[in-house]
Design goal:
The chain has 5 helices and 12 strands. It is an alpha+beta fold. The strands form 2 sheets. It has a 10-stranded antiparallel β-sheet. The chain has a two-stranded antiparallel ribbon with strand order 3-7. Helix 1 packs across helix 2 and helix 3 crosses helix 4.
Length: 248
């Protein structure tokens, strides 16, 4: 983590009256994720190569038909364009992740990894009925976002709150400030790694590791879609074995 970023986090801690030692311990509990955001002219996007396309039509290997599913194409992620050595999960170093889903509980989404160098062609639309969507293509830029899963997991923070009547409120405000500091300034459509957010029963409660979340709002859906699995399964690219989670 850059020194100026550490300095800004300590400034946030001082603003809320958090002891320096607790802030330093919190820094060790920060976890990285990658947000894929729409281009909006933000300065951080200058010179940043797009790493995904949401919507549009997918490119699939020669001879491969649209997956055996009525799902539209949600996104294609260019793994080689993602920041390297950031996440604590094993992402492919190259090739493309291609995702199909209609945010439907009854039909399992499809997640494919197409290795680099594979000859691909753009697919013809698979129109199931008049309501079947082809989403407008949107380029997405990657941004590393740091967050704390739960300050109650930090021993120093627990001790601080037990000794101070307003300590819990101060820690909540500190974590909120961190969220504002690290939130993607562009609109995030997809998150890789980190922890599932906005889920009442997150897969982490079952001992699984978050892989990808696709947010439904940009697709005019009320649910968010998350994939999670074991770290071993994610590393082995056994994406068909991943669990999927839908939650409004």
């Amino acid at each position: 983590m850059e020194a100026n970023l550490r300095t800004r986090i300590h400034e946030l801690g001082r603003k809320q009256g958090i002891p320096e030692a607790v802030v330093e311990e919190a820094l060790r509990h920060l976890r990285p994720s990658i947000s894929l955001c729409e281009a909006d002219g933000s300065s951080w996007q200058e010179g940043v190569r797009p790493a995904a396309m949401a919507g549009g039509l997918p490119r699939l290997p020669e001879g491969m038909e649209w997956p055996d599913s009525d799902h539209p194409h949600l996104a294609t992620i260019d793994c080689a364009a993602l920041p390297r050595d950031v996440l604590d999960i094993d992402l492919p170093q190259d090739g493309h992740l291609v995702l199909f889903s209609d945010f439907d509980d009854f039909d399992a989404p499809v997640l494919l990894h197409i290795p680099a160098g594979t000859e691909t062609t753009e697919q013809e639309p698979r129109i199931v009925d008049e309501n079947w969507p082809i989403y407008e293509p949107v380029l997405l830029h990657p941004l590393v976002v740091w967050h704390i899963d739960n300050w109650d997991d930090i021993p120093g923070a627990r001790e601080f709150t037990e000794r101070n009547p307003s300590g819990a409120n101060k820690m909540d405000m500190f974590v909120d400030d961190l969220g504002h500091l690290f939130n993607a300034p562009g609109f995030a459509r997809i998150r890789l790694g980190g922890r599932t957010h906005y889920f009442q029963n997150p897969p982490e409660e079952d001992g699984l590791t978050h892989f990808i979340t696709v947010f439904g709002d940009p697709f005019e859906k009320t649910s968010n879609l998350a994939f999670a699995g074991t770290r071993e399964g994610i590393s082995a690219r056994r994406y068909e074995k991943l669990g999927y989670y839908l939650e409004a």
